[in-house]
Fold each of these.
Amino acid sequence: MGHFSISDLEQLSGIKAHTIRMWEQRYNLLQPVRTATNIRTYSEDDLRRLLNVSTLCARGQRISQVARLSDAEISEAVLACCDDAHDYHRQVNGLLAAMLSLDEERINQLLTEAAAKLGFESMMLFVAYPLLQRIGLMWLAGTVNPAQEHMLANLLRQKMLAATDALPPVPATARRWVLFLPAEELHELALLFMNYAVRLRGQHTLYLGQNLPTEQLGAVCQTYRPDVVVSVLTLQPDRSRVGEFAAEVSAHCQGLPVVLYGPLARQEGLVLPPNCVSPPLMTDFLAMITQNELVETAAV
């Protein structure tokens, strides 16, 4: 079981550290243990309880009342809350608590409800992505285990595949996009969402997925003749090789517009070929899909 500092709880729950301490001292809300150096650490059960309590307090319930409830009563009260499609913080907290409990059924229910109320794209942007960012913080702290993260990632992957399959056919004259991940890159969620977003906007995609050797792109471009090539760089290639990778992709694709997304593509001091762009945010990429700036960049 992972152990969280109070600053971890603050980042993950949105509740200020001094408020957490007050709730702990006044209401015995959490049960931290102390390290040999007398530092409080908190368990997954503490985090899960805090997430649920913060959800109820955000809905107007008094902490003095909530603190008297058992964990089971708190969970029941959270489920009974009136749903607000735009209460993203509550939805993210609910998903995070369900992930920590390995409650696949609850996660699936929450994602389905959010997609039905917000639309699938908005659910991904305002609920799923903030959730993944919080999980990233937990990875850095060593306080989430692979089973929890893999369960959530696989559920999101299933949702994106199903949503993409449900889209209508694309006109034969539409722009064409190739989407792939570099060799040894397995983090696929961002690329799957980009594939969905491009298809949603009535454009063709050739989705090549994970772990594609760069040298295969030449044959792909000759056969498919795309207008744009997209890749996401999360852990691969090595940070020192990103510029070389971008040059290789540009050469194999004969100067076509290339979109490189992800943290490695935004590192300070990185120089990309003139036909490559690196949008800072997913919303920037979504704006690019309907604009001609990618084609204009390649023509310079």
Amino acid sequence: MGRLENKIALITGAARGIGESIARVFHREGAMVILSDILDEKGKALAQELGEMACYTHLDVADENDWRLVYQKLLLEFGGLDILVNNAGITGFLESKGPVDAENPDMDSFEQVMRVNLNGTVLGCKYAIPLMKRKGNGSIINISSRSGLVGIPGAAAYAASKAAVRNHTKSVALLCAEKRYNIRCNSIHPAAIMTPMWDAMLGEGEMREKIIKSVEAGIPLGHFGEPEDVAYAALYLASEESKYVTGIELNVDGGILAGSEARPE
């Protein structure tokens, strides 16, 4: 049997990048995977590729009405939910008019990033908890970031949103523990994972290669991570192997947060 056999899992932002990799790993481990995104064509194509035990539904995580519709779908078709991965997120570089730096933030852009990254996670937890209570247990996994633990001057909105996700995770974990819901909530903090989110910062051609080498020089393990590295961390937190783990932050960052300045030469 797979590690997630007979589990119902909803993954947001599942059409590409880390969300896609989590969907593939969860599906391979036996879960019924509900992929959700606003990139409908990509999401539908992935669900079709995965085949049996996978389906796609449109979900703008910043829109509470979309969450209500997904809640009804999960309730009527599956009777509840076992696993939620709040993965959908934006940096604000491509999705808003900006800027989103710490000195001159455009507040509409700042709020847009917060609506998707923070509000989307809060709404996910809000609607997952009653669905998981129906099943008698559950695991909520919030994808934060290294940027949720350190300041990012040029991406203040993203950093603030991910820091809030980190702390909200702990609030959810404690609430569910106090009320004896048997629902765990943990956050994952990726850094330097090669996904489409990096494209705006890396550019193309020779410049891209130069920037990649520069970034990798500051990673203790010496290279970018892959989306699957985050997916396997999520698999652990989703499975019964982590049944005594709640409220933690799991770093998947090649050692960056251990102190990259101390990297041995």
